[in-house]
Structures are given as structure tokens and as C-alpha cells.
Amino acid sequence: MTSRYRVEYALKSHRRDEFIEWIKTLLACPFVLHADVESYNLAYPNLYEVPDDDKDSRFKQHEIDVAQDCQRRYLEIFKDVEQLIDHTILMDQLNDQQQKTLYPNPRYTLSRLRNLVPSIGRFFTKLPLSEAFLVEDERRGISKRRLVAPSFNDVRMILNMAQIMALTEINRELGRTHLKLITFDGDVTLYEDGQSLVEGSDVVKRLVQLLAMGVYVGVVTAAGYPGQSGAVKYEERLKGLIDYLNREDGSCILTKEQKENLLVMGAESNYLFRYNAQLKGLKFIDSEEWHLPQVQKWDNDKIKYIMHTCHHHLIHLQQKFQLEDTTTIIKKERSVGIIPNPGQKILREQLEEMVLSCSKKLEVILKSTDNTTTQTTQTSRSQASNDSTDEFTTSAGATTATTSSFDPASSSPLSDIKVCAFNGGSDVWVDIGDKALGVESLQKYLCQDESNDLCPIRKAESLHIGDQFALLGANDFKARLSACTVWIANPAETVAILDDILEFVEKRKLDTTETK
To answer: What is the pLDDT of residues 379-408, one digit of tens each?
Structure first.
């Protein structure tokens, strides 16, 4: 029952990645047709006729032959996918150039890969998938398996490996850039859900090595704590790393400049902090210094209206599932969410229902325009206006009121504001902004000084590592718009990815030295 439940749950459409599922389908063909040892070829039955003394070695050799044949066929598929990606990158470049001409073509020419996988995004680098497959095949024994086909996790890890190979120039022909900025999600990526970094942890050691290389390291998290007072909250989560940076016994290997390459972007893209050696902690950076131009144009009344409507919708969902006594709704300046009370837990299915419902609600309210007042807009207005107050914290009997004056029927569209709804694993949140803006803001902020050798920081020179890349209800997904990405499942995988990055960078340095 449990296994069947997990399988059915994992097959929900909003949980899939269409590109990974498509590659899985391609790999299933050689697995089904060629991975069965007993029916692989006509030579197998003859193995029963060989002398007993020689039988074991013959069977082992036959296993090796089958594995090599499967590897060759899998490798051909990844080479073909590589070519499709190269073609997609070329078509994207041609389309971009065409749109800049005096007579832009309103219709884009789609690559074959985009026709096959419509949801696929932009590729900022080429991906050496065939080489990445050989590395992961050695580690995971994909070609040697006879009963378990190449899985979602197999393909995910191969894509991860190909991406870091391209970024670190381990493949010189395909990777023409180098890594300048690495950003991380917090929970489940740097540390376990609800935990914090410990100074002696493997993650801290790798982060220090990245900083020592001169790479900018950012934590882009959904947790939102504004102002200098909010720095304390982030320092608690990053305590192990902050403690290392503040060592006074001379054991810290980092210079002052390298230490200050550590940044934190809170509430997706709303609050920026940077390590300050003088303060020995994080310093709050005023939004005027780093907000992107499009964000500076956002109307605060629109933001209040969106937060008010989503807050009202969460109250509705809380009552619908009878969670008033076991959950608390928290409303902040630019985020609203529902969390379980201490000792309580929200069911996984309820979390999924709430995040999908909030996503649908956002689709409705973000389409509100000043020219037409549709039925959905009227419904959204009535739901938000029946109760003219917002509540910063809603649980059993605790409320604080404020007001929202924005009228969607008499104002400009809301669609210029970016909003994301996501399932945090134990809670659900709706945030103004998203991680695409968060990563892009870091890229621009760090390059305000054009004399910096690392500037500009392009999307092909940035990497975001996170655990939430599902199509809906996941907040790392949007980071794909601003950087290359790696999809991990736990902090141990983060450590493994960073080890590969550090190893490839070191190998690149050695190759460069030998060439000179």
C-alpha cells in the first residue's frame, strides 16, 4: 500500500519535470530491448553447455558484454540529446537577434527540442551530457542494472553533472565560461529542514573553499526578516559559517574581501544582507542600492492588495480543512503563509491542495486589468473586500488589523508584479518576488563597480543549487530564468556537488599550468 501510494503520488503532473521524464522515456527503450541477460542474444542458451569449471567466468563475461552494449546505446541517446540542446541554443540566439531588427518576426521559430518538450526553458551553457553520463554510470552502475530502468534520479544527477562540467570548463570545447556566483537555497540544501549550519559541518568547509577561490556565495531563501534586526535570524541559520568567519585565532584562511563575498537574499528577492567584517556579522543593505529597475516601479498598493487577497484565501483554506486550532497564518510586509503550531503537522495532501489553490488564485488576481472587470476579478474583489482588514497573525483568537485600499477595477494591471506560491515541506507561503529576481539582483548589485574583474556576472556564469524545482509549488524553479541550476535532494548531495565543482576547478588550473 505504501509503495503504491508513493508511486501514484510521485506521478502527479505538477510533481514532474517534463524534460527529465522525456529523457527517461528515451532511455527506457534500450533498457527494455537489450538489458535482459537471458534474452539478450542467441549465445546465452549455449552458456549452459560449457563445462562447469568455465561456466562462471563465461556468465560474468556475458554480463559485462550486456552492460557494455547498454552503455553504448545509452551514450548514443545522450549524444543525440546534446545535439538537440546545441540546436536549441542556436535557435534561441537567432530568434533573439531577429527580434532586435527593424522588422521583428512576431512568430518565433521553435527548435525540435522545444516542439518535443514545450515546457523547457533557456539553456545558458551547452551540456556535455555524454561525458556526464559516463561519470554517473561509473558511480551509479546504470548500465549494469537488469531489473531497474534508468530513473528520475539517474537523469537528474546526469544533468547536474553536465551542468557543473560546463560551468567549470572541465570540457573545454563546450564550456567557455567560468563560475563567478553560486547561490543556495537554505532548508534541505545547506542544512536539514528547520536546522542550521554547524561550524564543523561538511557544507561549511566547502563554502569556505568557494569563498577562498574568490567566488561570490549567496543564500537565496524564502525566509523573510527585514531590517538590520532581521540579520540576527539569518545569522542563527548560518551560525557555523558566521562563527568560522569571525575566528580570531588566525585559523580562518579567508581575507577580509573574501569574507565579504558572502551574501543573503531573504524573502526570495526582498531583503539583502552582506557579511561585514567590521560588524562581524550580516549588514542590511537598503533596497535603493540593489533593487532592479522593474521592482522599483512596483506599486505598494498593488502589493498590499495581493497580500490581502492571498491572506483572505488562506483563511478560507484554513477553515475549509478545519485547521484553525492546529495552524497559524502569518502575514508579513511581502509574504503570507500558513504554518503548523508546535507539535502539530499539516498533511502532505493538504499542503499540496493549499499551494495549488493559492497558485490558481494568483493567476486570477494577476490578470486583473483596468479596461475590463471580469467575473473572476469581481469575485476576487468581493472576497477581499468583504473583510476590509488584514491580519498579521491569525490563529485561535489572535488578530492584528490593517487595511488595503487598492481597487483592481480602477487601476493598472497587476501582472507586472512577480509573485510565487510554494510548499515548504511543512508550511505554505506566498511571497512577493521570486528567486529569479533574487539571483538577478545579486548579479547586478555585485557589479555596480564596473572595474571589478569578475564583472559582468552573466547567467552562464552563475549557478543556483536548490531542492525545489517542480513545475508548481516550488520556489527554486524560477531561478532557472536567471542562472544555471543544480537540483539536489538533501545536504549530502550538495556536498557531493561542491566536491565535484572544487575538483573540476582544480583540474582546470592544473591543465592551464601544464599548457603554459
So the answer is: 444 444 444 334 445 554 344 444 455 555
Supply the pLDDT for residue 8. 45
Residue 16, φ and ψ in degrees, nearest 5: -90, 160
Contact indicator for 243, 236 with CB cutoff of 8 Å = no
CA pair distance 85, 114, nearest whole angstrom: 9
Q: Distance of CA 471 to CAs 13, 64, 351, Å?
A: 9, 39, 16
Alpha-carbon separation of residue 57 from 41, 48, 63, 68 (angstroms): 18, 12, 10, 16
340: preceding bond cis by omega (within 30 degrees) = no
Find cell 528520475 and name the residue.
152
3-state SS class at 393: strand
What amino acid is encoded at 361 in this protein?
Answer: K
Pairing mode, strands 262-266 and 271-276: antiparallel
**Other C-beta atoms within 10 Å of 194: how many?**
11
**Taking the CA of residue 42 as centre, how many other CA atoms within 13 Å lie in the half-sphere pointing to its CB?**
0
The answer to whether residue 276 scores a pLDDT higher than 80 is yes
Q: What is the mean pLDDT of residues 452-479?
A: 85
Nearest CA to 442 out of 258, 207, 272, 257 is that of: 272
Residues labelled catalytic: 185, 187
Looking at the chain, how many residues does it have? 516
**Is the Cβ–Cβ distance between 308 and 390 less than 8 Å?**
yes
Residue ranges of the domains in the chain?
12-123, 181-290+434-515, 300-416
The secondary structure of residue 72, as a DSSP letter, is H
Instruction: Specify whether the CB–CB gap between 134 and 75 falls below 8 A.
Output: yes
Per-residue pLDDT averaged across 331-360, rounded? 95
pTM of the full predicted structure? 0.86
Q: How confident is the model at residue 11 (pLDDT cuts 50, 70, 90)?
A: very low
> Measuring CA to CA, which residue among 119, 114, 118 is closest to residue 91?
114
DSSP 339: E
175 vs 161: CA distance, rounded Å: 13
- Helix (H) or strand (E) holding 265, with range, is strand 262-266
Domain covering 181-290+434-515 in this structure, CATH number: 3.40.50.1000
CB atoms within 10 A of CB 459: 19
Helices (H), 367-427: 375-385
Give the torsion sign (CA, 219, 223, 226, 229): negative
